[in-house]
């Protein structure tokens, strides 16, 4: 029997073996990790809502009302009043006519792309788009084309050369490993010109950007019947699941055709109840977004002048480029020794030679905790950790 031990040893020799650490207790800046308290800059809990008492209370009330499991897929008998209410609230939150909820962002991207395009159609993907968008594009059977990162002119050329058939352009709104933003208004205009849909994955913008956290499309003031928004609920919303929002007719079609919606058990109704509570908090607590911006500015100021380049980013994602895989892992390990947990991200998640520390901030980090990280990186730079 092939047991993959050679492959695992090869990954280890390339510093590409991923480790999974056991966290005990709820999310937050301070985590208990295998018996040791760590200051974490790993989480996508950007607004610090994952353990919020109002969301936890809503989840408990939902469990009492609905029990645990949904019991069936949504199109059989799993779609509850809690799901129905949540979908209306999600549509309102992002300012689009209709929404459909999914069990995760990964599943939403697979399902939505496969529902919109297939054999004979074309899907055009930003080169740095998230793995779930690429997987969805491949699985759809449509012809897959890639355009250079955020290059709208090249996208227009690709679309102009597309054969007949449906066209779908997909992009992250906030790039998950770089923290930069897609030029959504320009992308939407080019898509409208070429009769293509634009699917925007707002996993890292929802709740963080736009008025009251309405997301990247709201921030860019993009409204078009060609545009669909996919949002995840396990990040800023602090819960789990995802949704796609857009024109009612498109959402109705996706409900009929998205295989990752049709052939899976609906997520627990109590989760929908908790998510409704989270949406209300996200819309209400503008101070969380303000705090996040202040912390990002503080971090960037603190890290200026260090030997590692901080990518330009105004979001919660602040990547520090190290370059070499082993060096990135060594830097993360040295921080861990100092009680600070920042993930090292290596290829294939990011392009070769651009291994990095992905620092992610949360509104519930304190300025002192951010200072602790910058002081640790400064002392490591002085010790020559970059050499
Ligand atoms: N899209 C992007 C851009 C992401 O970063 C992620 C999660 N890392 C997903 C989709 C998948 O979302 P989920 O975790 O809900 O499956």
TrEMBL record:
InterPro entries per record: Aminotransferase_I/II_large, AON_synthase_class-II, AONS_Archaea/Proteobacteria, AONS_Proteobacteria, PyrdxlP-dep_Trfase, PyrdxlP-dep_Trfase_major, PyrdxlP-dep_Trfase_small
Enzyme Commission number(s): 2.3.1.47
Residues annotated to bind substrate: 18, 130, 349
Entry superkingdom: Bacteria
GO MF annotations, alphabetized: 8-amino-7-oxononanoate synthase activity
Catalysis performed (reactions): 6-carboxyhexanoyl-[ACP] + L-alanine + H(+) = (8S)-8-amino-7-oxononanoate + holo-[ACP] + CO2
N6-(pyridoxal phosphate)lysine sites (modified residues): 235
Domain Aminotransferase class I/classII large: 37-377
Claim: Membrane is one of the keywords in the record: no
Pathway: Cofactor biosynthesis; biotin biosynthesis
Transferase recorded as keyword: yes
Keywords: Acyltransferase, Biotin biosynthesis, Pyridoxal phosphate, Transferase
Residues given in the record as pyridoxal 5'-phosphate binding sites: 105-106, 176, 204, 232
Pfam families, A to Z: Aminotran_1_2
EC primary class: transferase
Needed co-factor(s): pyridoxal 5'-phosphate
Function: Catalyzes the decarboxylative condensation of pimeloyl-[acyl-carrier protein] and L-alanine to produce 8-amino-7-oxononanoate (AON), [acyl-carrier protein], and carbon dioxide.
Family that this chain belongs to: Belongs to the class-II pyridoxal-phosphate-dependent aminotransferase family. BioF subfamily.
Complex and partners: Homodimer.
PANTHER family attached to this UniProt entry: 8-AMINO-7-OXONONANOATE SYNTHASE (PTHR13693:SF100), CLASS II AMINOTRANSFERASE/8-AMINO-7-OXONONANOATE SYNTHASE (PTHR13693)
NCBIfam families associated with the record: bioF (TIGR00858)
Protein name from the UniProt record: 8-amino-7-oxononanoate synthase
């Amino acid at each position: 029997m092939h047991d993959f031990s050679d492959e695992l040893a090869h990954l280890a020799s390339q510093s590409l073996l991923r480790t999974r650490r056991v966290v005990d207790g709820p999310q937050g800046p301070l985590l208990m990790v295998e018996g040791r308290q760590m200051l974490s800059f790993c989480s996508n809990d950007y607004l610090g809502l994952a353990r919020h008492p109002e969301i936890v209370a809503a989840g408990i009330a939902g469990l009492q009302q609905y029990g645990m499991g949904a019991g069936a897929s949504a199109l059989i008998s799993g779609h509850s009043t809690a799901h129905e209410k949540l979908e209306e609230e999600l549509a309102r939150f992002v300012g689009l006519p209709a929404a459909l909820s999914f069990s995760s962002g990964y599943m939403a991207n697979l399902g939505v792309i496969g529902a919109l395009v297939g054999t004979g159609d074309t899907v055009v993907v930003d080169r740095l788009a998230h793995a779930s968008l690429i997987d969805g594009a491949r699985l759809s059977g449509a012809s897959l084309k890639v355009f250079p990162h955020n290059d709208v002119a090249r996208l227009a050329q690709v679309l102009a050369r597309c054969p007949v058939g449906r066209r779908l352009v997909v992009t992250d709104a906030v790039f998950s490993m770089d923290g930069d933003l897609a030029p959504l208004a320009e992308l939407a205009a080019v898509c409208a010109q070429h009769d293509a849909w634009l699917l925007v994955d707002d996993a890292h913008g929802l709740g963080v950007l736009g008025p009251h956290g309405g997301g990247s499309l709201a921030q860019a003031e993009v409204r078009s019947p060609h545009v669909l928004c996919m949002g995840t609920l396990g990040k800023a919303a602090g819960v789990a699941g995802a949704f796609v929002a857009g024109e009612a007719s498109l959402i109705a079609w996706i409900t009929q055709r998205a295989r990752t919606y049709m052939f899976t058990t609906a997520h627990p109704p109590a989760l929908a109840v908790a998510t409704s509570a989270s949406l209300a908090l996200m819309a209400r607590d503008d101070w969380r977004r303000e705090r996040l911006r202040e912390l990002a500015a503080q971090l960037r100021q603190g890290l200026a002048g260090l030997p590692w380049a901080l990518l330009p980013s105004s979001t919660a994602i602040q990547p520090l480029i190290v370059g070499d895989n082993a060096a990135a892992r060594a830097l993360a390990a040295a921080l861990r020794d100092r009680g600070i947990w920042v993930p090292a991200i290596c290829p294939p998640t990011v392009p070769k030679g651009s291994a990095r520390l992905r620092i992610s901030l949360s509104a519930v980090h304190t300025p002192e905790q951010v200072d602790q990280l910058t002081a640790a990186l400064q002392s490591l730079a002085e010790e020559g950790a970059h050499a």
